TrEMBL record:
Keywords: Coiled coil, Phosphoprotein. Residues 170-294 form the HD domain. Residues 127-154 form a coiled coil. The lineage of its organism: Bacteria, Pseudomonadati, Pseudomonadota, Alphaproteobacteria, Hyphomicrobiales. Residues 4-121 form the Response regulatory domain. PANTHER family: CYCLIC DI-GMP PHOSPHODIESTERASE TM_0186, CYCLIC DI-GMP PHOSPHODIESTERASE TM_0186-RELATED. PROSITE patterns: HD (PS51831), HD_GYP (PS51832), RESPONSE_REGULATORY (PS50110). GO terms for molecular function: phosphoric diester hydrolase activity. The modification 4-aspartylphosphate is found at D54. This is Putative two-component system response regulator. The keyword Transferase does not apply. Residues 148-345 form the HD-GYP domain. It holds the Pfam family HD_5.
Length: 361
């Protein structure tokens, strides 16, 4: 691959000489410029691997020019050689401090030029190969991380299916809670990645119900006090199932499972956490879970209206719910209504398809 060498010298004779000498180097091409202004005008689209810059030039000297060049990150590691007739140590120190890797003394000796520049070109080539290798490694790491993430998301999806296997209504509940939670998280100003992770992990909030007896879990009616205590165990069971995973996504799911029934005032379960001791993810899902539970018909209660449920949650800011999360919930209500409508339409379509299938049978 051809190495491109930037050559800058305001003296036309010197510029031609340096250009001819570069042409003698193996696999090298000169990019000649007769003034610093021309170079600066070409940035940052100018592509070069090594720079040879005359020190004494009008308007910008060589060090000043190179200082402007390296303001662009892409040129920061480019080797630079200064050409100067000045043997003063102050001049050379200024060049070294600017990033010079070597010097050529005027008048330029062709033999010395070839020896010095061949070494520098070899160094630049090695750096380029190293950069290409680093970029290849970065792509491979990104690919591996993406594949790992996809496997984690599939695990979450499969566990969500398992959690709702006994009760289709539970499966729909978990997915609505996930979307409501994401909407609230966005209104809290969390990053897109964090909001996405909360949506993926939130369906796991009730995974612990796999450890609850069917006589309690599927009971068609209000639970007794003893049965309710058994049902409360699902939060800790869910946390225990997921907590020891090395996956950050499953760890988030464990955090949500174990904290989504905690209350801001410390009167929740399983650990009676209060205030900001409750993980933010749990505080978010707590509101989403309550909203969906109240707006959904259950064997032991009718569905509350949207307006009644919103008023209930707003009224409990600072007691049951985190006030900041409640404020975010309020801002998210337009999106939450959209989710409710999409779910209603999907249920209606599924019911129509089921009726059509039964009629055909």
């Amino acid at each position: 691959m051809t190495m491109k060498i930037l050559v800058v010298d305001d003296n036309n004779t010197n510029l031609k000489l340096l250009t001819k000498l570069v042409a003698r180097l193996k696999n090298c091409e000169a990019l000649p410029f007769s003034s610093p202004d021309q170079v600066l005008a070409a940035l940052p689209d100018l592509d070069f691997d090594v720079a040879i810059i005359d020190y004494q030039m009008p308007v910008y000297n060589g060090v000043e020019l190179y200082t402007e060049i390296v303001r662009f990150e892409r040129y920061a590691a480019v080797p630079v050689v200064f050409v100067t007739a000045d043997k003063d140590m102050t001049t050379r120190m200024a060049a070294l401090n600017a990033g010079a890797i070597d010097f050529l003394t005027k008048p330029v000796n062709p033999v010395e030029f070839m020896a010095r520049m061949q070494n520098i070109v070899s160094l630049a080539e090695a750096r380029r190969q190293l950069a290409e290798r680093a970029e290849w490694l970065r792509r491979e790491v990104d690919k591996a991380v993406k594949e790992l993430r996809e496997r984690e998301e599939e695990i979450i999806h499969r566990l969500t299916l398992a959690a709702g296997y006994k009760d289709p209504d539970t499966a729909r509940h978990t997915m609505r809670v996930a979307l409501y939670s994401e909407a609230i998280a966005k209104q809290l100003g969390l990053s897109d990645d964090r909001c996405h992770d909360i949506r993926l992990a939130a369906p796991m909030h009730d995974i612990g119900k796999v450890g609850i007896p069917d006589t309690v879990l599927l009971k068609q009616g209000k639970l007794t006090e003893s049965e309710f205590r058994q049902m409360q165990r699902h939060a800790q069971i869910g946390s225990d199932i997921l907590a020891k995973s090395h996956s950050s996504l499953l760890q988030l799911a464990a955090e949500i499972a174990g904290s989504h029934h905690e209350r801001w005032d410390g009167q929740g379960y399983p650990n009676r956490l209060a205030g900001e001791d409750i993980p933010l993810s749990g505080r978010i899902v707590c509101i989403a879970d309550n909203f969906d539970a109240l707006t959904t018909e259950r064997p032991y209660k009718p569905a509350w209206s949207y307006e009644q449920t919103v008023a209930h949650i707003l009224d409990r800011a600072g007691t049951q719910f985190d006030p900041v999360c409640v404020a975010a919930f309020k801002r998210a209500l337009p999106r939450i209504q959209e989710i409710m409508e999409m779910d209603r339409q999907q249920r209606a379509q599924e019911l129509a398809e089921e009726m059509a299938a039964n009629s055909a049978a």
